[in-house]
């Protein structure tokens, strides 16, 4: 069945099948690296929920899951790097191997803040699994994720958990949002 493209999306970058392949590869890497470590997988709400739900089912070693919700103080699309914790972990991470799961890394400021915060709690290790990394010219991301699903161009990306104004998270594919959609208003 061909995927019906949403009229606000100009291009599909990764279909459901593409996503499945990427997630399987990431799950296999993580399962090999953490075989005997029982890592804590930390999903960053809300964008990473869809990816995390798939990724955890592609992880074959023992693991646990917890959630954090953060909100960036910056206005608009660009994060400022100043992050407010809206929901913290319920799990103590001292001595544990932690994998932070994010939907997309742009400047990397959000994730570098989270990595520093969690590192201050003395875990055994903290690594990042980012489903997407945005390729932005003249911009070196503040962190390098250990696991990366795919690279995307410097456009507004929606679907598979990624939103614009809380819409489009339910699209089963990753697409480029038409600029007309976010430029009007
Ligand atoms: P930084 O710059 O801190 O930004 O790496 C990461 C956060 O910004 C959001 N973001 C996006 N969300 N489509 C989205 O739906 C995008 O193209 C996009 N680029 C950045 C996202 O919340 C991520 O956690
Ligand atoms: Mg996010």
UniProtKB/TrEMBL annotation:
GO MF annotations in UniProt: glycosyltransferase activity
Any matching Pfam family: Pribosyltran
UniProt source species: Olsenella profusa
Taxonomic placement: Bacteria, Bacillati, Actinomycetota, Coriobacteriia, Coriobacteriales
Pathway: Purine metabolism; GMP biosynthesis via salvage pathway; GMP from guanine: step 1/1; Purine metabolism; IMP biosynthesis via salvage pathway; IMP from hypoxanthine: step 1/1
Enzymatic reactions: IMP + diphosphate = hypoxanthine + 5-phospho-alpha-D-ribose 1-diphosphate; GMP + diphosphate = guanine + 5-phospho-alpha-D-ribose 1-diphosphate
Alphabetized NCBIfam families for the sequence: HGPRTase
InterPro entries the record matches: HGPRT (IPR050408), Hxn_phspho_trans (IPR005904), PRTase-like (IPR029057), PRTase_dom (IPR000836)
Designated name of the protein: Hypoxanthine phosphoribosyltransferase
Keyword annotations: Cytoplasm, Glycosyltransferase, Magnesium, Metal-binding, Nucleotide-binding, Purine salvage, Transferase
Family: Belongs to the purine/pyrimidine phosphoribosyltransferase family.
The protein's required cofactors: Mg(2+)
Enzyme class: transferase
């Amino acid at each position: 069945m061909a995927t019906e493209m949403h009229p606000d999306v100009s291009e599909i970058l990764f279909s459901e099948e593409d996503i499945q392949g990427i997630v399987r590869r990431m799950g296999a890497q993580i399962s090999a690296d953490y075989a005997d470590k029982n890592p804590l997988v930390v999903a960053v709400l809300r964008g990473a929920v869809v990816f995390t739900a798939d990724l955890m089912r592609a992880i074959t070693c023992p693991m646990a899951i917890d959630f954090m919700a953060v909100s960036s103080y910056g206005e608009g699309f660009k994060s400022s790097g100043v992050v407010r914790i809206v929901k913290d972990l319920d799990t103590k991470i001292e001595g544990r191997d932690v994998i932070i799961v994010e939907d997309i890394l742009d400047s990397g400021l959000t994730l570098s803040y989270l990595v520093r915060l969690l590192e201050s709690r003395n875990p055994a290790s903290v690594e990042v699994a980012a489903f997407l990394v945005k390729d932005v010219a003249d911009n070196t991301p503040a962190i390098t994720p250990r696991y990366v699903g795919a690279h995307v161009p410097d456009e507004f990306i929606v679907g598979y958990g990624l939103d614009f104004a809380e819409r489009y998270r339910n699209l089963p594919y990753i697409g480029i949002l038409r600029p007309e959609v976010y430029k009007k208003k």
